[in-house]
Specification:
Distance between the termini: 40 Å
Structural class: alpha/beta
Strand content: 25-35%
Number of domains: 1
Mean pLDDT: 88
Shape: globular
CATH topology: Rossmann fold
Oligomer: single chain
CATH class: Alpha Beta
Strand order of the largest sheet: 5-4-3-6-7-10-9-8
């Protein structure tokens, strides 16, 4: 028998709303505590943004972004079951279809298609959250983002990567520079800014 557990939206217009979480132990949702830490950091730059949740799982991170004022969230996950779960959670929060997209795809395959289809005219994202299984080789995705950041991120865009705290990620990749690392328990968040944006300002302190 599968045990159904719940994740909680921390604040914003959906504050306190319980979301369904993946029943499989093979899927590791971002914890409420780490999600709160993440949004404490990016709170000043979340209102009105386009948010991309890669390897979205339950969709809790992207829904939290919408709860706090993001204008649109795109959820990408390779699992059909997880995409169905995300849609269910969007319905629980009564989020309008115009505010979100749910895409079943491998993360890098989706980004390749996006860049190929919209090399100049696509709408890049202001904030991207990438949270694959911790055993993933992160370098191909980071290299892809670094090489194509102008097509994927706005001028003040931010790439946030969740990973195991012992995983060594590069300080720089293409035009992206890691500006901060936050560690909490076994997890860590790495923040990558465009080099020009990093020269102007760093993410705010918690």
């Amino acid at each position: 028998m599968k045990l159904e557990t719940f994740l909680r939206i921390i604040t914003g217009k959906f504050r306190g709303r319980n979301l369904k979480s993946p029943p499989s132990l093979e899927v590791r949702p971002t914890s409420d505590r780490l999600r709160e830490t993440l949004f404490n950091v990016i709170a000043p730059r979340i209102a009105g943004v386009r948010f991309l949740d890669l390897c979205a799982g339950s969709g809790a991170v992207g829904i939290e972004a919408l709860s706090r004022g993001a204008s649109h969230a795109t959820f990408v996950d390779s699992s059909r079951a997880m995409c169905a779960l995300i849609k269910s959670n969007l319905e629980l929060c009564r989020i309008e279809r115009s505010e979100s997209d749910v895409i079943q795809s491998e993360a890098q395959d989706y980004l390749r298609r996006f860049v190929s289809k919209h090399p100049d005219s696509g709408k890049p994202w202001d904030t991207v959250f990438y949270d694959p299984p911790y055993a993933t080789d992160y370098l191909p995705m980071l290299d892809f983002f670094g090489a194509r950041s102008s097509s994927l991120l706005t001028a003040k865009g931010l790439l946030i990567v969740e990973h195991h705290h012992k995983t060594n990620l590069p300080e720089e990749t293409g035009s992206l520079v890691r500006s901060r690392v936050l560690k909490q328990g076994d997890s860590a968040l790495s923040f990558y800014d465009l080099e020009t944006e990093r020269a102007r300002a760093s993410p705010p302190s918690v």
